[in-house]
Amino acid sequence: MFLHFKNINSKYALYDRHMHTNWTDGKNTIEEMIEAAEKLGMKEIALTDHVRGTSTYYNDYVRKIKYLRKKTKVNVVIGFECKIKNFDGEIDVNEEIKSSAEISIASVHSFPIGSKFYDAKKFHRDLCQDIEFELTMSALKNSKFDILGHPGGASLRYHNNFDLKYFEQIVIECVKKNIAFDLNYFYHFKIFPQLSKILEKYNPLVSLGSDAHESRHLGAWLNYFK
């Protein structure tokens, strides 16, 4: 399903495995995302809308995708993105959703402190990176999922930095656990020259993701891996 970093080529960029629709926080419908994929000549897209353990929409979501994918040549994969919810590495998804999905992403979105979650922007840059790293490593070690979503993304979004030593340790753990590293265009494009050296060194499985929240951003890596 996934390629190791050293094997990535232009054909692999035709597989976009991280995107969102208007079923959660995206702008476009499932139909519009599939149509955009068709126009780009994509081979595969994974629809990975956000879920929580309490989500109730997912059965209808699955039925909708199964119906629509019969009408397209694009391989449309049923997926989800859930948050890493505590420092024990648990992920916020229930067993019914996990069993219905064909691909799973776990990501750091906010920081659990006590019984509440806080935006990363509320924390000093260095502390933010430390917390995000600890949450990420705990999930890699203690939970099962296919893709580690946008590693370092919270720190990169709010502080424009995530220490390369943390990236290195995360990549090493991804290799150990056979979990794909989400090379996420939205978060990683600007730091790709530095990040690629670590990926080249350890050669983890990599999933290319646009993290598109609009159809016009789908397949973002196509312009890079030519």
Explain what the structure shows.
The chain is built from 8 helices and 10 strands. By secondary structure, the chain is α/β, with parallel strands linked by helices. The chain has one domain: Metal-dependent hydrolases (TIM Barrel). An 8-stranded mixed β-sheet has the order 1-10-9-8-5-4-3-2. The two termini are about 20 Å apart.
Radius of gyration of CA atoms, rounded to a whole number: 17 Å
Integer tally of domains? 1
* Silhouette: globular
Main sheet specs = 8 strands, mixed
How much helical structure, as a percent, in the residues?
A: 25-40%
Please trace the helix and strand order, writing H or E for each element: EEHEHEHEEEHEHHEHHE
Give the termini distance in whole angstroms.
Answer: 21 Å
CATH class: Alpha Beta
- Percent of residues in beta strands? 15-25%
Extended strand count: 10
